[in-house]
Amino acid sequence: xxxxxxxxxxxxxxxxxxxTASDTNTFGYASGTSLSxxxxxxxxxxxxxAHPDWAPWxxxxxxxxTANNSFTPNKTYGWGLIDLLAAVQYSFGTGDVxxxxxxxxxxxxxxxxxxxxxxxxxxxxxxxxxxCDHTVTVADVVYLIAxxxxxxxxxxxx
Length: 158
Description:
Number of helices: 6
Oligomer: single chain
Largest sheet: 2 strands, antiparallel
Radius of gyration: 19 Å
């Protein structure tokens, strides 16, 4: 009703090999949302175990933005099938505005296009806030260029 894409993520829910409830030593196949929902919850628990300092929004973001459909979310699979290893390795640093996996000059070009030509905003607003002043402005472009070409301070992280 509020325009958000739902579901946000999905997990395997058909013919998943797992421990059975009937015995402590048996495995079998299970299907349905009663299986996929606990899988996502379990992955969230693993993320919190690996990163006990993460706030709930960080766990959510890591699961969503490392899922297999994160570049083109839709109303069928949301951001896609979760990838726990990628989520554990997820970074919250700023600067990677275009989600290429590293901070490069293309991120500065992306910010310039956004700020001066009406291009798409950073996929996560704070990723464009390279200097951590809580706004995305030309100062972030200058900061990013100084970092890339002059050895200036690295982009901040939240």
